[in-house]
Amino acid sequence: MKTVLFWFRRDLRLSDNPALRAALNAADRVVPVYIHSPHEEGDWGPGGASRWWLMKSLARLDRRLRDHDSRLIIRQGDALDCLHSLLASTAAEAVFWNRLYEPAVVERDRKIKEWLKQQGYHAESHNGALLVEPWELRTGKGEPYRVFTPFWRALSKRDEPDSPLQKPRTLRPTAQWPSSLALDELKLLSGIGWEDKLETHWQPGEAGAGDAMDRFLDQALVDYKTARDLPDVSGTSRLSPHLHFGEISPRQAWHRVRSRMAGQAAVEEGGWTWLRELGWREFAHHVLFEFPHTPDQPLYSRWQDFPWRKNHEAFVLAWQRGETGYPIVDAGMRELWETGYMHNRVRMIAASVLVKNIRAPWLSGAKWFWDTLVDADLANNTMGWQWSAGCGADAAPYFRIFNPFTQSRRFDPEGRYLRRWLPELSKLPDRDLHAPHEAADGILHHAGLRLDRDYPRPIVDYKSSREEALAAARAVASA
């Protein structure tokens, strides 16, 4: 073939990009394309934080392409219309892309591939986002997995993932480039400046992903098994947004960790613990693909009737603002607003309080995280919130409710995380920091803290709200 289109989606990298390599092997000239069509993702087009990341990552991808005498052609609108126009203007004979697995996108891509073939074009898609395609793993009964441990056991028994592909030496640029929108024309930013602060915390793009991987391997992998639960230390990889946008592939990450583990017993435990977390990402995509109703509805339909609190909107707003009176939750929500990120242990606690103490619908939390997290991913976000609500895959055999006070004392015992994000509580002694409403008046006075003025009391009583949630769960289970 003389000319083909390569359609970038959430695979914003040059290294280990299977569909890009296939396009380069098939043609004399390759035209890289990005099409912005969030309306084709159903109710789950990218949120505010994701749009900021996307803008930065596309800009950096274009610079990398231009370093190889290529460039990124940007279009906006219905993907099929844009591809049709580009095929006509470039005389391209084929379109190559890497697969995605969200329900609306799967259906859209199926129709596009069908149309291309009907019109005589070559259409070719590859797996560039997962270690294993969702349909490649099944239970002994031939059914999709709903529980992680047997899924991970099956995944672990497979051969090691193929070695990552190297960055191509040439991108086979064309001499005649089609027209392109400027990146600013996509209007990805909100216009209120909220995203500006994200710049100080993140480095989107393929190079940023490599730097994050290096930091994790050098500084955090050895202690990952224990440090990953401590929100006041840099004990996690922070690779989740880079994986979501495809700036690093899962098999690149897998092999980098496996390579560091080789011959180093000290990192063996941390390495396997992290690879298991990568397995959770695979499992989340497996469940989303097999059960496409789950972004909006429980995996198990009986939970559709769970009795959420009436008039919960004001409670949700307090949760969003970090004003619940539960310090570990409020610290996490403020971290999220400032950085586009929340430590995973704190995410679980914050989610538990919202759905089981406040008893607000899990979708209200899922939508807030979707808009504010730089690593918002439909598979991971859906699984995380349904796990917290007890209505999804791999739910605990009992209706687990996190105690935010004991969790806080256990995982932030010296209060460094709380003091960073809740400076109004900074003068409280460690023993009172995690539950200011229980502190003696003299302690509060000495710390210069007045409850309900400087910091709220809990918006719901933990013990009574816990009992109400348990009773609600029992009612659903016995229905």
Q: Outline, from the CA principal axes?
A: globular
CATH class of the largest domain: Mainly Alpha
Q: In percent, how much strand structure appears in the residues? A: 5-15%
Q: Give the low-pLDDT segments.
A: none
The total tally of domains equals 3
Tally of DSSP helical segments: 20
CATH architecture of the largest domain: Orthogonal Bundle
Ends apart, CA distance between termini: 61 Å
User: Mean pLDDT, nearest integer?
Assistant: 96
Structural class: mainly alpha
- How are helices and strands ordered from N to C? EHEHEHEHEHHHHHHHHHHHHHHHH
CATH superfamily of the largest domain: DNA Cyclobutane Dipyrimidine Photolyase, subunit A, domain 3
The CATH topology of the largest domain comes to DNA Cyclobutane Dipyrimidine Photolyase, subunit A, domain 3
* Proportion in helices: 40-55%
The major beta sheet can be summarized as: 5 strands, parallel
Number of strands: 5
Describe the strand arrangement of the main beta sheet, using strand numbers: 3-2-1-4-5
State Rg: 24 Å
GO molecular function: deoxyribodipyrimidine photo-lyase activity; DNA binding; FAD binding
Cofactor: FAD; (6R)-5,10-methylene-5,6,7,8-tetrahydrofolate
EC number: 4.1.99.3
Keywords: Chromophore, FAD, Flavoprotein, Lyase
